[in-house]
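batch job 7 of whatever, protein = Cellular morphogenesis protein
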Amino acid sequence: MRNIVAQLFALGPELALFILSSPIFFARTVSAVTQQQVPSPNLDLSQLGRVALAGDFDSISLYEYVGQGQDSFSTNGSQSLLTRYPNGAFQTLGTTDAYIETMCPFVQNGKLQGVVMGGNFTRLGGVEAQGIALYDPNTTSITALPGLSGRVSALYCDDTSGTVYVGGSFSAGNSTNAMAWVTGWSNLPFEGFNGPVSSIVKNAAGNIVFGGSFEGLGNATTPKDPDVQVINLSSGNITSSGTSTRNGFSDPEQIICKTGAQDGAGNTWLLQDDTQGYWQGAYSFGFNPTKIRLYNTQQDGRGTKTFYFEDMNSGGILNLDYSDADGKSRSCSARCPLAQNSTSQDFHFVPPVGMNTFRIQIVDWYGPGGGLAGIELFQDDIYSFAVNDFNEPKCDGVSSGSSSTITPANGTWTRTANNGDTSSDYLTAVINDTTTDTGASVTFSPNLAQSGNYSIMVYTPGCLQDSSCASRGRVNLTGTMTSNAPPISTVVYQTNDYDKFDQIYYGYVNTDSGSFRPSVTLTPVAGQTNVTVVAQRVRFELVKSTGGLNGLYEFNPNLATVNTDFTTSAIDVAGHSLQSNAVVNAVAMYQDRLYVAGNFSGQGISNVMSVGSNATSLPGGGLNSEVQSIYQNGSTLWMGGNFTNTEDGKVQGLNSVAAFNVDTQSWAPLGAGVNGPVFDLVPLDVNITDGTLESCITVNGAFTSVNGFGDYDTLNTSGFAVWVPSRNNWLHNLPNVTIALSGKLVTATEVPGFSPLFAGQISAQKLGLSDAVQLVGSGQPGLQTLGLKIQPATASTSTKRKRAETGTADASGVYTGLYYGESNLNITVLGGSFIAEATNGSTVSNLIFINNTASTQAITGVTGLEPESIIVAMDTVNTLLFAGGSVQGTVNNAQVNGLVVVDLVTGEYASTQPPALAGGAVLVGAIATQPQTSTVYVGGNFQTAGSLPCETLCYYDTSAKQWNTPGSGLSGTINTMTWTSATDLMIAGNLTVSGNHTTMATYNTKTQAFAQYTSDTTLPGTISSLSPADSSYTTWWAAGLSTADNTAYLARHANNAWTFVDVLGPGTFIRGLQILSTTANHGSSDLLPADRVLLLSGNINIPSFGNASAALFNGTALTPFLLTSKTSGSGGGGSIAGLFVSNPSALMSGGGSHLALGLVVLIGLGISLFLIFLLVVIGILIERRRRKREGYVPMSMDRGKGNLERVPPQELFEGLHEKEGSGMQKL
């Protein structure tokens, strides 16, 4: 390992630390799931100085793995099966149309068969699956386990026996609410429970413990008086064959609900003489008949002698049981006899078969021909249909009938045909503001013959059959079950792809209270608009029970028969010792004790207890309200629910979440808890800081904030938080956290040999940073904090309108930023709609300064602006910052509008402010300082600057401190401006130049003239974003929204023509465009050079991928670059407004690889020193050569002579005279 680390650090310390801190170094398992890393974007940021991104997000990540995404969380109840990428993000393995509530690894004979998943879904990963499915981690395939109908809430995979125990609210085989799966469905010997199962665990004795809301073992049963629910035959399409033409006897419909006593014209149907024929009914709803009652005709000595009953759905002739004239039981099929008398004759279906079309074929007759005087069809199933024509009629005095009532009676609800895709036609309503005001509802009123315990189920047709999946929503189901009890109420999602049912009530229903009649009412959940609501049918199913249980049952799988003496089980006795109607939501085992949690009380026990040899209360008497879930980790039980304290009120801070230590028998709070109910506690390993992987607990529920405690403030959230046990704190309170999580988790499971699986909707981004981050490095850049935390500000309606007028996205966050590094200052400025905490602890909003001039960073802001102000544009002149947008307030005792000026040296408003802009809804969309001047150009939507008429564009002279008008001929709204030279300004937006509408115009400061930039007027809408494509400013990229359909466009202008690029999906909004250089060439393209890419920022919908907050276009393809999330507001993905740099002039410099400025200086110095050294060496060599050529010889260094030879003076002077003489001769 040491050698590996040394090799990594040889690559560079930054790269080594990145690799070592990657979560992949902490992976505990392997995964067969394909996780392909995407290629590097190869961005060259080396010449840009500091680079930052501004936007509206809570967290942000680089796009690193194929499939990684940021799509908004679904609000229609759907979820996903998830695993994790090496970078900690979540990978979707399959989506569902509802919840995955429970999972467990299914092992048989030591081999993993797959992961069993249960919930209330009807589709998982594109496979139709009713409530349960099997996921194979080796192949990533999903297999339905057909045969179960309903909701699965609990699973226990027993490795010892190779059995999966399944619990919930469902029917399967001959069992209700509990089943087993081995190689197929297997009925449990006790045939299930008379109420739903919520939790299953194996205890120390090897027995299976079921927890739920039941009172005994049992199953669905028939009423004490069977065959009394009359099927409505009059609502179908009635046809016949061989019918008589006699007047009053030819209509087959006239025998429905008639008796033999009414035999005669207008009440009887006859066949032609000596002719076989049939009576047929086809219906738009399904039924499961148990009995048919026929009345034979005696008209003119006629009558039916033999017949058979044919199920037209299957084409089979059904077996019927009847009693003959002697009262003996008989069976028939192809030739069933009908006595020739006026009394009815009943035939029972053995077995009952579901159908919606049937035929009575008459094969023999009495007298001249056959016929019938009456027909009735009965069933045991008790339904009330939304389509009232399907409800039980008041027929033959045997039924009081069922009914449904719709509100309003006309105009809102329409009948939708089943087309063979669901069991019956149903009602549909499209709910908008208008229909919500009318109180749309459907009330179902069944015909119940007896009081008793009923399971009430509401059926919802799938959305695929009527193409309403995109608009389905939620409905309220309320019901009155007894005359003196409060109504029940629950919410049901209708987003199922295929048909489903939801149990909305289990319990006693009273029918013996005079005029009282049970009913269920369906209404849309308030607050939904443009949502499709459907209403089909409600079923009341009578349930039998052994009794003797109360939410708990211990099952011994080694016994072939069930012992109903429940007193032999301490667990069963513990449940029975509680008050009746106990609800057990969760069970867990630790050592030899069972821990039970839910909504119950009795014998000093409240909502949680332990069971050994008997039931024992936990310290403090338990918890003071319902417990929804338990997560066990060693000796600690983490609990979530609706409680606020122990029952005796002595442990503060247990708000909806609590930890109980079994060893110390003590309670502990999680901070101060949360402010609403908690439904699920799901474990999750989190890389909290780079290189530190810790076991955490996600807390999921319906709360809106995490309560503050100690020095930590309250945090607003959307029902999600993460507790870090090792730090005894919430994740969001910890310093230097490098991951942000949002969404919801419902369940998770370990999978032997593979990575864990999760279910829910969750996003994990690399950095938990809000609205502004730095982009560092080239090639594959990284993300880095700017050193502050930004929170969203609530904008008013008027502000949103102003943003819409400029084509700006309706978002909070940071809109714009700039780096200022002149005059010995080092300041980062951010502007937008947000709040942040200053260094001194005060709150600053919408315009802040991150000052790194001194050794310690300081965050400051300004006051005086209205909270609804938004800064959308900025530029500087010397040390003056001009900031504009939708800005109002009071500065230096004067009103400002659209623009303020701040002195960056002092961090305060400049002493002199430009006179306020005015005229309509003032908004400054762009600010650009003219190069090499002290003049600032301001563009947007306004009419005057102070008292100066100055529409759309005006410039401010900072030396003269006054506004000036640039000329005439321009009107409209400016969204963006760019100087293309010292005297030429490019303007874009929604413009009119000299009476001609355009989107781009130029302005020349010398001629003070405006001109249309291009004669090509094919852009479909206003330009909201503009970027030059080259340093000569002859090619441009533009983006905006189409005026016709509000869709985004992207176009390139060159050679006086626009070229449109079709790479954007629906819902795209581009907030920024920027050309960037690359470190490596990409494929050739006519749209972009090989060393350039176009950065698109905003909310970019990439076809076949989904949404990204920033994407890179290389001239042929659009690829994701940055992904963001935003938990505030509606949740889901955020957006990026754009990029700003400290060296903006380099954005238009040449491409290719560039060395950093410091390195260039060092290299230049090295080359200079080398050249100097080389010149010195050459000079020495030349001088030596010259001396040698002139006869110079080195002086002798022989010291043996004791002294140098002396030169006589006369010889020396003679030499001098010779030199002088020779010099004079040359002159």
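notes: The chain is about 5% helix and 45% strand.
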